[in-house]
Amino acid sequence: MSPxxxxxxxxxADLVVFGGTGDLSMRKLLPALYHSDREGRLSPxxxxxxxxxxxxxxxxxxxxxxxxxxxxxPMDDPALWQRFLGRLHHVSVDVGGPESGADKSGWxxxxxxxxxxxxxxxxxYLASPPRTFGPFCRELDEAGLVTPRSRVxxxxxxxxxxxxxxxxxxEVGAIFEERQIFRIDHYLGKETVQNLLVLRxxxxxxxxxxxxxxxxxxxxTAAETVxxxxxxxxxxxxxxxRDMVQNHLLQLLTLTAMEPPARNDREAxxxxxxxxxxALRPITGTEVARFTVRGQYTEAEGLPGYLDEPASTPPxxxxxxxxxxxxxxxxxxxxxxxxxxxxxxxxxxxxxxxSEIVVQFKDVPHSIFPGGSPNRLVLRxxxxxxxxxxxxAKEPGAGEVxxxxxxxxxxxxxxxxxxxxxxxxxxxxxxxxxNPTLFMRRDEVEAAWRWIDPILSAWEASADLPEPYPAxxxxxxxxxxxxxxxxxxxxxxxxx
Length: 496
Ligand code: BG6
Prior knowledge:
Layout: E1 13-18, H1 23-38, E2 47-52, H2 58-69, H3 78-86, E3 88-92, H4 105-114, E4 121-126, H5 133-142, E5 150-154, H6 162-173, E6 181-183, H7 191-201, E7 215-223, H8 232-257, H9 266-279, H10 287-291, E8 292-298, H11 317-321, E9 325-330, E10 342-347, E11 354-361, E12 376-382, E13 386-394, E14 403-411, H12 412-415, H13 423-433, H14 442-461, E15 467-470, H15 477-484, H16 491-495
Parallel strand pairs: 1-2, 1-4, 2-3, 4-5, 5-6, 7-10, 8-15
Antiparallel strand pairs: 7-11, 8-9, 9-10, 11-12, 12-13, 13-14
Bound molecules: 6-O-phosphono-beta-D-glucopyranose.
């Protein structure tokens, strides 16, 4: 089995999804499971048991999935779809909080459904709020449902700072062993993210130049066009730093910066990633204002501002202070990366949806041609997953030599005919196969929070509000200055 990810048919499993009728389940998990089923990667007896407050019967739930998921998946084989629906069950529990004196009958119903299947793999997928993680694990334990073949999947956010993440890890860790805990970060399931490891460690030419001698800086961007309609309740307390940087962007940074793993086993990759997080230079106190930028989008071009987005409650002081954009200049204190800034950036309501890692090489030491520009490697996660190496070439013509940067590109969709699976599809298969490589270990999550927390504290202590940026633009002026003061620019600024 490849240590990176697993695609072979999984053992028979019972997959119990808390929050099973929620958005994540209906938009990501169930479509991903159906794709796997179509491609023969689910064992015929595998069942999916949705837990929710819904009070639904199995038939109601199957009807709901038929109505809401059918349009998201290929419908070329109605018999297969019916077979998939037949795998689905529903159990009602008070998903809001088992400690709140809630009705326990749901747990007995789950026990009855699982009884006699103790030899199967059992996966408890907690797609519920993080405050429920500990209590649910305790309930599962008290109901005697945690077998040696059980695993638990924790959705983000894993806490809102280091102490809360530690508390959740302790609570879950009191019931499940670390090898049974799968902390999901769906960015790790994206095709290009895994290709980054293959590019780096299955090709010999990059490694000698993958360091501060050759690389000027790295940019990691996750830009989204969407705003936060209907999400204010969550987003006011999260913000871009917790929602995107603590997890997705730092994961991309670790994979870009990690040392080649010494051994070909599951823990080796995670060991190297943790070392990168531990080597991040802390940004504290007055440095926070110099090395970080926060912004909030305002109404423009017919698009609402953050404070005007539809929400069930009116904006509060927390809404005014929350960042929908952030940019950070990070540094990794080790031999390979000393002096190479890693610029991280993410924002809502930007002009394009684009997630990419841009590795900017240094310029030639001495140029004999006018007008060259340094090489750049772009790893695009979305849209159009692919890799581009920008090199200098001579523009054809008989006159003077004119240089032009041109991309050597690999577009996965065009080069490979195989369907590019959704991130959740791969990650769910890995959970079912018990392969934790693409999941975050406890020390990784906590190291990430340890770096994030001082930035959060400085922002909270500051009287300043996030810098406004008009919806549909590339973020506040501060983000451009962050690179501009060292004569650098964001990738797309140079393209324009
Ligand atoms: C989620 C965040 O983790 O990732 C969302 O909570 C964000 O705010 C989403 O929109 C982005 O994921 P993707 O795969 O669309 O880049």
